[in-house]
Structure formats: C-alpha cells, structure tokens
C-alpha cells in the first residue's frame, strides 16, 4: 500500500509543461487504477512489478534536438517511457526510421495512443549521471537504446537511481571476473596517461554507474573563461551555479498570451551570467560511436556581466520560479571588445 501511495504522489505532471490528452489521462489515474493500467496496457510480462514512476523530459540519441515529455515507469523487468504524441510528428523525417507507425489508422480518430519506448533491464549497460544530478543518461547496446532524462532536479535523479539500483539487484546475471590486481589506480584511473577517469561504480548486475569527477568542472570553467575573451584570469574564476533551466520566449499576437520554453544551461560565475545550449545526449561518446558528434557539448547562447545587471524581477507563482534579469547594456561593451580584437590588432 505504501508503494502504491508513493507512486500516486509522484504521478503529477510538472505545471510548466504541457502534454497531450493521452498523457493527461495517465496523470489522472490514482492508486490501484494506476497499477491496473500498468499491468493491462504497458507491462510485457505478467509477473513484473511497478516500482517507481517519474515525469521527466527525455531526449533520444537518434533525435537529439527533440525534447519530449514522458512518463517514466520503472518495473522489475524494464524501464518504460510513455511519450507525448507530439514527438512522432515533431521530427517526421528523423523519427520515421526510429518508430514503426503501425497505428497510423488512428490518426483521425478521437482517441490517440501514446508511443511507449521499452528498455529492458537486461539490455542496460551504463548510467551516466550529469553534473550536479541535473540529468542522467541510460545506455543500452545500440544507438536506439540511449535515452537522457532531463529531470532538472537532483532529488528526482537521486530517487530514480536508488530505485534502479534496487531493481537491478534482483536480476540474476553471471558475475564478472575479478581483476587480477585490484588497487586504486587500476580501478579508477589510466596508468598510461596518469589522468583520472570519471568515477565509476560497477553494480552487482554489471551495470556501470558513472559520475562526473572534479575535472569536468575544471573543463567547464576553462570553456567559460575562453568565452570571456580571456579578460578574467582562470584561477580566480569560480562556477557558483550550474542549473538546467528554460528561457522563456513570449509569443505575441496569439489568441492566448502563450510563451515557449527553450531549454538552456545557466552558469553563474563571480563576474558573469551565461546561457549555454548543451548537448545532454552525445557525451561522453558511446563505445559504438564511429565519429564525434556534429556539435560541441556547450555552445554559448548568451552571456552578460554581473556588473551590468540592473535588477532581478521575481514572479510570485509556486515552483518552478520565474526570474527576469534586466541588464543595463547601453554601452554594449561586448560588441566593442569583439571589434577591437578582430580589426585592430591581436
């Protein structure tokens, strides 16, 4: 009963995100009705148990530019992603190979089916946890089996990882052979380069849980310093905040005063505020990748100096909170710096 109650409490769509009618129906289910829905419509095996439910934005490796809302269901056999209908239509030419549309005759009916993507726990190879637990990437044995969950919430990430580890402990897998010399360096580092790799935890089910190490923050600080045209000396540059957020773009002239949400990574340093377009799905490179991704992990979208910040407006609605940053950039310093660098010498 406590598990059913917990799953019912978690069955809430984030207020700032809109979903299709079929997913709204799922979000309206409570208690035993939700469990019955899972066993009647989603579960592939009769004896599997629903252990955890989470609402999250997801990205697929094959369609890295399409972020879609999903209801993520973890059972004792698989991870199920109930997807928003809009995903299939958002990127027709890319997703045509990815999803086989057997239910195309439902197009004109009043009842729409959600797509459900299934990742069996036996096919799971590794889980990469993002910086500050803002997201995590689940990797299977092929490009079709790589999914990133953008929770934008360290608590949700932590809870899902804990539940996943508990479920994986139930799987019967043959144990991996023990290494010959089990010392610190062979476990966590490369003897050839002396460079520390990301911290890896190998679960008893042989699934790797990979966490970022301190060097990732160092690399990010170096990248941010580069974007600042080298005006700040690197040792004094500290990243104070890294958070996955949305940039709000108001759409004027529409019937309702709607706003579109653009996913952005917000990075705050002691002197600047940056917005980056981040690739959450392609890095680190999967083992089967034959060439690097087409775009960098971080692409600068906007950057402003804190000393040009005039005021911060805070909305009064409940979480998630809306913040408006008003900058006084009459001097347009950034443009002048770029002109100087490009046209008047080195």
> Count the helices. How many?
9
Radius of gyration: 23 Å
Decide which structural class fits the backbone: alpha+beta
Tally of separate domains: 2
End-to-end separation: 69 Å
CATH homology superfamily name of the largest domain: Pleckstrin-homology domain (PH domain)/Phosphotyrosine-binding domain (PTB)
Shape verdict: globular
H/E series: HHHEEEHHEEEEHHEEHEEEEEEH
Give the biggest beta sheet. Answer: 9 strands, mixed
CATH-derived architecture of the largest domain: Roll
The strands making up the biggest β-sheet line up spatially as: 4-3-2-1-7-6-5-9-8
The poorly predicted ranges are: 101-106, 190-196, 335-341
Average pLDDT value?
80
CATH class division of the largest domain: Mainly Beta
E-strand count? 15
Q: Beta fraction of the residues?
A: 25-35%
What name is given to the CATH topology of the largest domain? PH-domain like
Q: Which oligomeric state applies?
A: single chain
Subcellular location: Cytoplasm
GO molecular function, one term: kinesin binding
Main location: cytoplasm
Keywords: Cytoplasm
